[in-house]
Design goal:
CATH class: Alpha Beta
CATH architecture: Roll
Number of helices: 4
Number of strands: 6
Helix content: 25-40%
Order of helices and strands: HHEEHEEEEH
CATH topology: Nuclear Transport Factor 2, Chain: A
Radius of gyration: 14 Å
Strand order of the largest sheet: 2-1-6-5-4-3
Number of domains: 1
Structural class: alpha+beta
Amino acid sequence: MDQGGAAVVRSFIDALERRDAAPLREVLAHDVVFEPMSTAAATRRPCFGPTAVCDYVEDLDRTWRSFEISLRHVEEVGDGYVIGAGRIRARAREISLLADNPVGVAFSVRDGRVAWGRVFATVAEAHDAVTQRRGAAWPG
């Protein structure tokens, strides 16, 4: 793949939004770690590897009657990291929960694939996480 990091992240979000595993797998590194945000409707744990990420995406339909994520801003911040600002709108299946919240996202893109991604309550938290990871000893 020869897409830039921002394009890879947009492809990931687009595939997640459509719940389409085939293009999702195309943008995931073999050792990807994705950390979705927990809510009152579902406690989420990190997803290790493409199969776990695809399982999470399938679970979205079991947890949510509707689930939309949109990014209004995506920015490459260097060293393969990408930060985005957007919104999640969702309606739970089992409980009376309607979510309409801003979110921040942070991703590490390596060789044209998502190596790490995490959803945060704010863009500031996403930025802080990238700052910490850039100082970490292991690449991600």
